[in-house]
Specification:
This protein is mainly alpha-helical. It is built from 11 helices and no strands. The chain has 2 domains: 37 residues; 230 residues, no CATH class. Helix 4 runs antiparallel to helix 8, helix 6 crosses helix 9 and helix 6 packs antiparallel against helix 10. It is globular and about 75 Å long.
Length: 271
């Protein structure tokens, strides 16, 4: 009998002496028991709070600023998004030294940058703003679909909560399929996922889409027109949703780490 056979016999003997509770525990630890409840990633417990803060913040902002974000149509909306993205990328690209009890941040490490400047005016503020403008873009698109394509005025407000609910549901569904793959390469890997999504959005709106019979066209930089006109299998709206959800995950992750307070943005606090 080989040494391998001896080890196998010893293991089988030990298993035969173990009671059912020990065997069940071993199976769970090894990941073999599919019926066993899986540990929930900490950030998932913060998703609904982050999504709720987005809805509250946007409703409050509308009271103060009205519909200024779409005053000049979809071109205005896109350039609001562009400015926010450029602020996020500029901040993330810089190395930040440790100071006054705060940790350092490496270039493009979004987690480190938020932890290094967790104030409401820090990087988290731009991430929230970008996420919320992306939500507004989809909300206006959905509201226009109910008005025959015309500007919805304040109709977009009714779409915010359903969008937030769908974002959370989709993230939870994808978590079951892919786990926390979005953060496994750290804050740099997470940022590069954002960047690829933004690049796809920017590339799509950089051109024109000619109108066809019964189908709308889209002018350059008019993101609302591009959402309505995109007839691809993976349209621009998919990229908008993906980017928004990754940004939601990021705040939930940093809240789970205790680095940021959900609902601390200025618009969240206004009545």
């Amino acid at each position: 009998m080989s040494a391998e056979d001896d080890r196998r016999k010893e293991l089988l003997d030990r298993l035969s002496r173990a009671d059912i509770e020990v065997l069940a525990l071993a199976a769970r630890l090894a990941g073999l028991d599919e019926s066993a409840p899986r540990r929930t990633s900490d950030y998932l417990t913060h998703l609904r709070a982050v999504a709720a803060s987005d809805v509250k913040g946007l409703v409050n902002a509308e009271k103060s600023y009205g519909v200024s974000w779409k005053l000049r149509g979809g071109i205005d909306t896109f350039h609001m998004l562009l400015r926010k993205w450029e602020r996020v990328e500029k901040r993330a690209a810089e190395a930040v030294p440790a100071r006054e009890g705060r940790p350092a941040a490496s270039p493009y490490d979004v987690f480190e940058h938020i932890a290094a400047d967790p104030q409401t005016t820090g990087l988290i503020d731009d991430i929230r703003d970008l996420r919320r403008y992306l939500m507004l873009g989809e909300a206006e698109h959905l509201a226009r679909a109910k008005t025959g394509g015309a500007d919805s005025d304040r109709g977009f407000l009714a779409e915010l909560q359903p969008i937030a609910d769908q974002d959370v549901a989709t993230i939870e569904e994808k978590e079951r399929a892919y786990g926390d793959s979005w953060r496994r390469n750290g804050g740099i890997g997470a940022f590069m996922i954002f960047a690829r999504k933004w690049d796809r959005i920017k590339q799509r709106v950089s051109g024109e889409v000619p109108a066809k019979e019964g189908e709308p066209g889209a002018a350059r930089d008019n993101i609302l027109e591009h959402i309505a006109a995109d007839r691809r299998a993976e349209p621009i709206l998919d990229d908008i949703r993906d980017l928004r959800r990754f940004l939601l995950l990021t705040e939930a992750e940093m809240a789970a780490r205790g680095a940021v307070a959900i609902g601390a943005a200025r618009d969240d606090l206004e009545a």
